[in-house]
User: Fold these one by one.
Assistant:
Number 1:
Amino acid sequence: MQNDQYQRGMADPKQPLLFFDTGVGGLSVFAKVRSTLPNAPIVYAADYAGMPYGEKSEMEVATRVCALLGRLSERFRPRLVVIACNTASVIALSHVRAALGVPVVGTVPAIKPAALATKSGVFGLLGTKATIRQPYVDRLQAEHAIGMTMLRHAAPDLVYAAEAKLRGETPDMQVCRDAVAGLIHQADGQKLDAMVLGCTHFPLLVEELTLAAKELGHERTISFVDGSDGIARRIKHLTESHIWPEEVQPGTFITTGNLDAIAPYATHLSKFGLSNYQSL
Ligand code: DGL
């Protein structure tokens, strides 16, 4: 029923777009969507109680993401769900699509744009431990990067560095240098000229990662790529016939963790219009 209404473009103007990540990483995706659909009502859900997904098993991530998105969908009746987390998307996207009655847009490592961007034929993938081992990633590589070298490195500490930055703290530069070194110090790494930021937290640190590559003496300019532009275009297309509220409403930020822990992020969240905090 909900899907029928959706296909006829009859979503209630107040029905939100629901964004989902473990923390504030999904804001790197939301930022692009917000600039194309400024009046879209927003619910942004952060599973802080489950962070980090990158250290969990496939079974744990799939079960948790399906259960949480089921509860969130019952509570907020979103017109569309955006899994703004690479780890959750590469593991659970098909399960979530099968379970929910609305369109679900995932965030998967931007391997195709990186393969198009590299001139040397060597590019890197930074992600969580769980993301870089997924068959989904193997398939993207086989489809889009034939004859190229894709180096992979897990950089779980970057998630916490990005969280710190959005609390207004100085992110740990050593963590950023270690992440970049994990790719450029591999065989052929000196030729690397494109890097997939395959975790939605990582684009929040693009200035620090650029500086880290410079500090490590990497000679090539690196193009950092993520999937957020493509996702914004996809959502715009999927909601083409939709009606939005005339006025921008305050967005809702939901946490599965401690509500008091959100206060340090308030300055940053308010830049995204997220001012109504709730617990799940
Ligand atoms: N932001 C999530 C991603 O895109 C990962 C963070 C985590 O490990 O929880 O993969």
Number 2:
Amino acid sequence: MIFKETKIFKISDSFPTKEDIEKLKEAADIIKAGGTVCFPTETVYGLGANALDAEAVKEIFVAKGRPQDNPLIIHLDEIENAEKYCLYKENPYINKLIKFFPGPLTAILKKRDVVPCIVTANLDSVGVRIPENPIAHEFLRLCGVPVAAPSANISGKPSPTCADHVIEDLFGKVDAIIYAGNCDVGLESTIVSLVKDPPILLRPGGITYEMLCDALCEVAVSDAVLSEMKPDDKASAPGMKYKHYAPKTPVFLVMGNDKKVIDFLKDKQTGESCAILAFTEDLKYLESKNVFDIGSKSNPDENAKRIFAHLRATDSICGLLNVYVHISDDKSGLRLAVFNRLLKASAYHIITLED
Ligand code: AMP
Ligand code: MG
């Protein structure tokens, strides 16, 4: 692959200053000219290109090493602009979800011909998202075109929740990176398909299953959320069959009553070279070496914000045999999304400690 000169546009903490807007204009010009730009959103950082330019979109797949049958989501500044790219107004469900836009929700809708097949992996539907992050919003407004964007990481690795993760994976492979703060949610958007009856949750995220049920009355849950898809499965959530979010070291999820889990983790710490992602409540029982605090067991927002950064951080520890993650058996609210990402990061390896 050709090494690209990657421009870094550092956005100030007091966004939006005049300089910030100038930088976003320059970044938007790169998109309009067919280039690739990484940008912050409230979920994770995205790697964007003009969704209407098939050649530009191809560069996303190349930079990430992403399989071409894994469709991309298009990002818009306003939901009112969606009608140009998909059958938005005639969808029977979308009105009930309007309150979640802008926000961490992707709606799958019937696509219009103007969206190239490469974006949707030849599907006749397209994922549409309106980010809430003010930098993303202004950037998309200045682009004036829909921006196709998956997460700004090498395919298979944990998603980027800060600009340094993006630099680590994509410097030299993209035309620009908008360098700003950490992502608020820390997990990718919720994806709900509105071309099915009833609508189906394809990926849990910041807009929870319970919130969707409240708005839509009935929501099905894709098998891909909690179970393993085989490479030849015809997935209702294409892309979910691929390896995801995984650090270099094998990951095991550990669940059971807290005392049992802590005893198990202490035992592992004395017996082997391992890293542990633990709840804040566990820390006082463990040796501190290679232990990462994922936040309180009672605070899934905090867990969501931290898991990708911690999984990624284990890659820089030499000689690790395994990574263990203490997980909760509660899957309500945002915990379902945390569990889903950890499940995939661990390739479905769960150790359940019986009472
Ligand atoms: P990423 O951009 O890496 O967050 O992944 C986007 C995911 O959205 C894909 O892996 C698909 O699972 C899902 N997706 C995108 N577009 C569609 C679509 N038209 N139909 C169903 N799922 C989609
Ligand atoms: Mg991704």
